[in-house]
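Aim 2 progress update. The chain analyzed this quarter is reproduced below.
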Amino acid sequence: MNPIDTSEGLTRRGFIKAGAAIGGGLLISFSLPGLMRGAEAGEADFSPNAYVRIDREGRIFLTIQPVEMGQGTYTSMPALIAEELEVGLDQVVIEHAPADDKRYANPMLGFQVTGGSTSVPGNWKPLREAGAAARILLVSAAARQWGVPVDSCKADKGMVLHPDSGWKLGYGELVDAASTLPLPSPIPLKDPSEFKLIGTPAKRTDSPDKVNGKAVFGIDVHPPGMKVAALMLCPVVGGTFESVDPAPAMAVKGVRQVLHTDNSVAVVADHMGAARKGLSLLQIKWNAGANAGVSSESMLKNITAASLEPGVQVRNEGDVKSALAKADRKVEVTYQVPFLAHACLEPVNCTVHVRKDGCDLWLGIQVPARAKAVAAQLTGLPEASVQVHNHLIGGGFGRRLEVDFVADAVKLARQVDYPLKVIWSREEDTRHSTLRPFHYNHLSAGLDTQGRPVAWTHKVTGGSILARWAPAAFVNGIDRDAIRDACGPYAFPNLSVHYVRHDPPAGILPAFWRGVGHTQNAFMVEGLVDELAHLSKTDPFEFRYPLLEKHPRAVKVLQMLREKSAWDTPPAAGRGRGLALTSCFSTYAAQVAEVSVKPNGEVQVHKIITVVDCGIAINPDSVVAQVQGGTIFGLSAVLFGNITFKDGQVEQGNFDTYRVLRINETPQIETFRVESGESPGGLGEVSTVTIAPAVVNAIFAATGKRLRSLPVDPQALRQA
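Predicted structure tokens:
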């Protein structure tokens, strides 16, 4: 998820301070670039948004802004500190940042949020500088104490050593003296050739507790006196609560109360079994409202009509109209992608304790400060009286960028005087999730007599996420997320991109989904590029090379992928290979999928080969894990992902109707990395972007049938 691109903030100067920690020790505080506006304007103070703290026992504490939701933050962030501080990963203790938009803002996005594959790129330099600053001060303090030159001392594994004399002091023995010393400016960083941790495989620091059961996710918390609530929302999206007789639920042993909000009913009990049973017995009257007749068919009709509108021009380069008129061959196509839910393994949940003087929230969320703000608004408490206890997240993918489930929990918790854990069932989570938007896009392209592209147009039609989620970023009628990758990384001599905003009915909320706008448009762009390559009778790799002269890193990725995928040797009989490329989140990635199609139209994906250039890899093992996870997540959507509506209700519920890839369906996945000295790019979402077009292009190679909509429809591929 990358809602707002403010990457220019990375070029700004950051601030670092050193001083004494409360209770003694060394505190390195720093303000990341995204928050420099106030300080640079001449303010006397600034609020640092991250800390490295070393106490008198020598323990190293890192307070980090990104939350851990499976992407490896708890390993990559301390590695950046540990590398420059000359300690091991096992010597850094993670402390999660409290909810505070001002002090703990994402350096690339300007507010407290985990998403957009920004954690490593945003913290790459600031965290290393913090580690280097601490090391310099500690070594200087030791040199002063010994009366020797600084350059005769060195740091190693939490100690400062003087090799000539054999003297050594632990960091904890030096922190008080170090806290009084001035920082050098600028702070020198290691050359990559000196790295010991960065670039070497490391075991995930959060894995042991996740295996042995000690890890605490939001759904695991149990404050004293807590009760559990099972929730049901109005089945019709956007509908409201009308009435309910609580008696059937109250007759269930363990049930305490039946509560409701404007659009939900909850049964409160001592445990989830009783709450679920009580909820199932209720006969609830709902007011379906304006969406009672909404269906997938009606929304398709409406978006198809909207897609014919001119929209807002986003890019206009060259003379597209003239180039298309003169083209030797033209292609005009429509592509579409469906609504998608996030299907996190941990359904959304929130535990809330509302009191007269305060409110506590226990949950896992990507936007803790937003959770704090909505709780303050609903309770009438000042934000300072609301405490957010953020925990590990069992899958985010953009779903936990939302606070709808927080608001529901707070509304219910206001009605009781004890902590209340509100858990959405899998079915409720699927049927009332915010959704990746349904898009219906028109594309066209022209080829000259040599089969080279001379013009490209792309009209994107779909709901706007930014207009709802970050209105300030929705400028001049353009949703910058919706038009990401509208022409890919390719240089077309004549180019036109338009955006038509067409929101779904009220209550159906367009939302970020792993890979965001790239996942919609890369499928379409890479699909049409493949069509053009076939039309021009050019190899798909060869067709792309001339269009990537401004992206030499992309060319290197393709060259390695061609070799690793054995592209130039024929696949096994009945199989086809498909290629897709992306440039997103400052990373270049490409995939080749190898598939076959059974007579009944069922697609079997046999192998996925991925090559990435993500810049410097903090943990090479994490690169492989992220690519594998993103591939499986995206492949689930390619083959099965589709949220459909009938009579205003989502038709899918649990994993039986909203399928995800199963172990026996998972292909062989191989990942290769182009060695690069570039600063790290994001990685958690790139393979989710490329997998759809790679598979669909492979299906064409295997069957000659071109699919321009998702998910894959076996009926369309069934052999007569």
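Residues 297-339+435-717 form a domain with the Aldehyde Oxidoreductase; domain 4 fold (CATH 3.30.365.10). The radius of gyration is 27 Å. These observations will guide the mutagenesis experiments scheduled for the next reporting period.
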